[in-house]
Structure formats: structure tokens, C-alpha cells
From TrEMBL:
Name of this protein: DUF3137 domain-containing protein
Top-level taxon in the UniProt lineage: Bacteria
Length: 208
């Protein structure tokens, strides 16, 4: 059977999940295969701890203002084994969905993730995050790190913050490098969460 993604080395469960996810996305959006595009994922901090990152499938979502993408990503990591194990490390692969968009606004470098109790405690003694005085709900929910406060404050407007608030996943991560945004999480691929990511990037592309 021909699948719209690379199946080499994948087990049947992963293939079935990719296929189910692709079919759900295709039923909701006008999507097409991209061919070989280098999305420069290793430039993003969220992948810095990985030995290798490869795209198993990439799909363009046609949008009225700009195109955005859904990526099936294979992440290769080295993990430490237990005490006395030989070899001391072993290969570990994860399969994730990420959505990517090229936005018109220049955000600088931005990292957005759910705020933890540890973050709140650190902020008391060493405030580093960008807060929004007019949007306490957003600031209490998400931890926002930026390298250019002026750019980020201008780009992360009410429409963008509302779109982020509507992503119902407790481990969501958004990273932006200038005009390139990715959103995802480090859990295994699931059709429902992939649909949320696609909804987010199409919404952001329409407003940002």
C-alpha cells in the first residue's frame, strides 16, 4: 500500500496512527504533499536535545493569506540505561506532529509554553518572562520568553493570545524565530491533537 509519508522502519501501529491522522486532516482541510522541503527544524530550541530530527511526511494547508504546514516528525534521542547496563545508552525514537507557519509579523525569538509553579517562583526573584498587563488570564497560563520585548509585544496581540488560549493541550510548545512559527508537543502522534495544531496555524495565518 502506498502511504503519503515515509514508512521505512516504522512499526504497524505508528503507520496506522500516521494514516489515521492524515485522513482526518484531509477531511477537514485542503492539504497537499509538499515534496522535499528543508524546514530547518534543528534551528529551533525544542529540538536541540535530539540526536537527529527527520520529517516523515509534510503537508501544505492552503490558506487565504499564506500557506502553513503539518509535519510528521521522527525524533531520535540517546537515552541512558539503568545502572550497570551495557551499552550505557540506547537509541530512542519518538513520532510527533508539529505544525509550522510563516507569519507576516516579525516576532523575534519567542518561546511559549504552559507556566509551571517553578516558573512562578523563579519570577519572584528573577523576572525574565514577558507579561501582558491587559491579559492576566494569558499571563497566568503561559510562560513567554523573548529576545526582543518590543517586537514580541507588538506581535503577540490579543488575536494571537486568544488563539493560543484555545489550544487545549497541557504540554503545548510554541516557538517562533522571526517569521517562522512551530507548534506541537513531545507526545506521540494523535489525530485529535494534530487537528488542534492545524486549526491553530490556519487561524494564526489568517490574523498574523
Amino acid at each position: 500500500m502506498n502511504y503519503p509519508f515515509d514508512t521505512v522502519g516504522l512499526n504497524s501501529e505508528t503507520i496506522d496512527t500516521f494514516d489515521e491522522t492524515y485522513k482526518l486532516l484531509k477531511s477537514r482541510f485542503q492539504i497537499g504533499l509538499t515534496g522535499n522541503i528543508d524546514f530547518h527544524l534543528k534551528d529551533f530550541e525544542v529540538f536541540r536535545g535530539c540526536t537527529h530530527v527527520s520529517v516523515r511526511g509534510s503537508y501544505v494547508i492552503k490558506n487565504a493569506r499564506t500557506d502553513c504546514y503539518i509535519l510528521f516528525v521522527e525524533v531520535h534521542k540517546l537515552k541512558k540505561g539503568g545502572y550497570g547496563t551495557v551499552p550505557p545508552t540506547y537509541d530512542y525514537y519518538e513520532y510527533q506532529t508539529w505544525a509550522l507557519a510563516y507569519v507576516k509579523k516579525d516576532f523575534g525569538r519567542v518561546l511559549i509554553r504552559p507556566e509551571t509553579l517553578a516558573d512562578k517562583l523563579i519570577e519572584l526573584v528573577h523576572p525574565v518572562e514577558l507579561d501582558f498587563d491587559d491579559d492576566k488570564a494569558f499571563s497566568d497560563t503561559f510562560y513567554v520568553l523573548v529576545n526582543d520585548r518590543w517586537k514580541a509585544d507588538m506581535a503577540i496581540d490579543r488575536n494571537f493570545r486568544n488563539a493560543v488560549m484555545d489550544v487545549r493541550h497541557e504540554d503545548v510548545v510554541i516557538e517562533i524565530i522571526d517569521h517562522t512559527l512551530i507548534i506541537g508537543h513531545r507526545h506521540q502522534v494523535s489525530p485529535e491533537s494534530s487537528l488542534q495544531l492545524a486549526d491553530f496555524v490556519t487561524r494564526v495565518c489568517s490574523t498574523c
